[in-house]
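Q: Structure tokens for this one, please.
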Amino acid sequence: MTDLDPGKWLRRYHPAPAAPVRLVCFPHAGGSASFYRPVSAAHSPGADVVVLQYPGRQDRHREPLLGGIDEYAEAITAVLAAEPELPTVFFGHSMGALLGFEVAHRLERGAGRPPRSLVVSGRRAPGTVRDERVHLLDDEGLLADVRALNGAESALDDEDVVRMSLPAIRNDYRAVETYPPRPDRVVSCPISVLIGDDDPKSTVDESLRWKEHTSGAFRLRGFRGGHFYLVEHAPQVNAELAAELTLRIPPGE
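A: Here is the predicted structure, written as tokens:
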């Protein structure tokens, strides 16, 4: 049974107990909570920035990995549903975009308080189809794909870190690549899409199809760059998030 201890799943690098709004960040495949430490610094104390830490990485590296997107989403939904009520924005990059969407869908269906908006990055819409099998490659092939995304952290040059990270990377790739297309799944919260114009994991057309997955408002903003454009354009991405957070603060607060 999955451990749902919030202390294991949630990281608050810059606690802001008086914040009027919450930002929940979902890491990418193979990623860890520390990727979003700069985002936390940029938005605290104005927002309660909460970052997910998935099992099988960093301080959770000894814990069993989860089987797929749905298993991740079920666990995260349960953890977030227990958080104190606060207007919330979800922000997910790559695999984190799928997880943010699936968790929002579950919360809207009565599992808890849903987010007021969803910001997705570097991921094509849930209804799109691609035959991807990178998770079946050998270790060198898998790492070559990760490094080709121009987002490979320098830690991947450390052989010990690579050896420790590979199981989580492969598991997350498998989770994403075996995610069944869900063209009819819709959330009611607005969806904002951020995308690099040279992202091999999602074309602009594939990203525009996120519009089919919300009954609320939709917008897309493109940036120059590849899959990890958000590192190079951190100030602009943070400005997008700041605007979204401000929009979600209840009037008078």
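A few notes: The chain has a mean pLDDT of 92. The two ends are 40 Å apart (CA to CA).
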